[in-house]
Specification:
By secondary structure, the chain is an alpha+beta fold. Strand 9, helix 5 and strand 10 form a beta-alpha-beta unit. The longest helix has 17 residues. The protein is globular. The relative contact order is 0.11. Pfam families: KaiB (PF07689). InterPro entries: KaiB-like, KaiB_domain, Thioredoxin-like_sf.
């Protein structure tokens, strides 16, 4: 009789050291992302992620219709027979183009994500488009990349100039929303570079919470300028937290910038 195999289950500490977890990412049609990394591999995460989007974007109800079409899942587990770490990463067609971002947040290097076959009609663009009038925020771009550690607790990620992937920042106050900013410019020049450098220095020095600053050239993206009702440059737009606020023209007054951003309220 062959010897019996004794299968062991790693502890949470062992899972952390081996990076064993289940990850779920939920995108919006506009490109925002909420996700979780869970070494305990609990269920119901799709519901928590939908609830997070509802809260962040002030939706009338959780956008359950995004599941499964706008989701990606990854599972890293330890094969009990070979003691080797196995990885399964799958994504639906609408989010396959976000593979670099998925690899950044889940720290999976250049992993190739496998497409998930869709059943007929499950992700019909015409059907999904029927939700647009009721959930217009989901079709807008808010530059959100948010990790949900547990219901009510979030981790914000901020792109940096030297690290184009993401840099995790843990917030001590779960209710803090961070900042989402857009700087509209008319082409790139020495003046634009100076404004951007001074603005970065001000934000790094003065903001106590994470921020995302996206620079938009109105000549290349006039549709974005129209969507944000920008008619002059430079214009700094605070997209988040709500309500939207703007500074047009002079961006040299640091006190005025911080007042309009509402930084002193946090």
């Amino acid at each position: 009789m062959p010897p019996k195999l004794h299968l062991t289950h790693p502890s949470l500490e062992e899972k952390a050291s081996l990076k064993l977890f289940k990850g779920i990412a939920l995108f919006t049609p506009g490109g925002d992302l909420v996700y979780c990394i869970d070494p305990t591999k609990r269920s119901q995460w799709h519901l928590h992620l939908c609830a997070t989007l509802q809260e962040l974007l002030d939706l009338p109800e959780p956008p359950h219709f995004l599941v499964p079409c706008y989701t990606a899942t990854i599972d890293r587990w330890l094969d009990p027979y070979t003691q080797q770490v196995k990885v399964s990463a799958e994504a639906y067609a609408p989010v396959l183009r976000y593979q670099p971002l998925l690899n950044a947040i889940f720290e999976t290097d250049s992993l190739v994500w496998q497409p998930i076959s869709q059943t007929l009609g499950s992700c019909d663009p015409l059907v999904l488009a029927t939700y647009r009038s009721r959930f217009p925020q989901l079709w807008e771009e808010h530059d959100l990349v948010i990790g949900v550690n547990s219901p009510g607790s979030r981790q914000f990620l901020r792109p940096t100039a030297t690290q184009p992937e993401v840099e995790p920042l843990i917030l001590s106050e779960p209710e803090a929303q961070g900042y989402v900013l857009r700087l509209f410019v008319s082409g790139y020049s020495a003046a634009t570079e100076r404004i951007l450098q001074e603005l970065y220095q001000l934000l790094e020095r003065s903001l106590a919470y994470p921020y995302t600053l996206k620079v938009i050239d109105i000549y290349k993206h006039p549709e974005q300028a129209e969507a944000d009702q920008v008619s002059a440059t430079p214009t700094l737009v605070r997209v988040w937290p709500r309500p939207v606020r703007k500074i047009v023209g002079n961006l040299e007054d640091a006190t005025k910038i911080l007042q309009i951003l509402g930084a002193t309220q946090y």
